Amino acid sequence: MREELTQCPACLENDISFKQSVKDYSTSNEVFDIWACGQCSHLFTNPRVREESVGPYYDNPDYISHTDDAASVFAKVYQFLREINLNWKHRHVKNYTEGKTLLDYGCGTGQFMEKMISKGYEVQGVEINEGARTKSSKFGSVYSSINEVKGEVDAITMWHVLEHVYNLDELLQSFKTKLRNNGTLIIAVPNPESHDAQHYGAHWAAWDIPIHVHHFTKKSMSAALERNGFQLQEVLPMSLDSYYISLISEQYKEGASTKRIVHWLKGVVQGTISNIKGGKDNKSSLIYVFKKS
Ligand SMILES: [Zn+2]
Known about the structure:
- By secondary structure, the chain is of the alpha/beta class.
- Helix content is about 35%, strand content about 25%.
- It contains 8 helices and 13 strands.
- Helix 4 links the parallel strand 9 and strand 10.
- Zinc ion (ZN) binds near residues 11, 37, 39 and 223.
- Zinc ion (ZN) binds near residues 37, 42 and 220.
């Protein structure tokens, strides 16, 4: 079941038009359309799968669990990079946050929670998926809804979550009640204006339709957040993501018949090119730092 939007979900204007079609390579092989807003340049999946029907589209095979010669090496490299990534996220939160109470919204299996707790933070999590919530609950209090979060926090983090959120205004308004005055909101999302998005076009893995309902540009992120009472402080590049996204995009482009090691090498090469050519502002993913105003 799909629903059609008649206004931009970021700025609420109705100056919207079709941009391109993209296939869901990871799960359903269905084709979805991406529309663009003429006012704030937001890109969004339209029509989109209704929220109550989107669950099965999340059931994609785990890229890491394939068994071939390169798999164990790949898994080790992936874990190594993930650790670098977690330390890097911690540094950014530390740099932009006063105080040590944190809510990780969409905390998944809790790796970031675990890292931040090890650095002395008091962390609560919200996770909709029950299986993931069971795992992250080992590290601290994890709830199924933001309404259950206790007290006010100094910072809220969302690592690749906001692009999945159907009702932006509802969530952002609830953040305002959970975040203390002048608190920090940190949002990481894929960047459809990145060099690797341009390079791979419809094969760009971070379109990830239909589960990504939003594809934020710098302009549309500011439009949605400022409208809801947050002020942009900084936009930071997320360089490591371009390798992972390029690797998966190679798989989509070349198909499964090409060996994984070829995808891997091409992904590394293209990820590097993307990071160099993309410069600071056009990385595969960006981190936005906002303050509650
Ligand atoms: Zn718009």
